[in-house]
Amino acid sequence: MTGRRRIRKPSLRAQAKPREKARARASQKAAEPAMDIAVGQRIRELRHDRKLSLETIAARTRLSVGFLSQIERGLSSPSLRVLATLADVLGVGIAGLFGAKAGDGAAAGGVVTRAPERAELKLWRTGISKQLLSPAGTDGRLNLFMVQLEPGGSTGDELYTHDGEEAGLVLEGEMRLTVDTETWTLKTGDSFRFASRRPHRFSNPARDARAVVLWVNCLSANG
Question: Given strand 174-179, what is the order of strands in its sheet?
Answer without folding.
Answer: 182-187, 174-179, 200-203
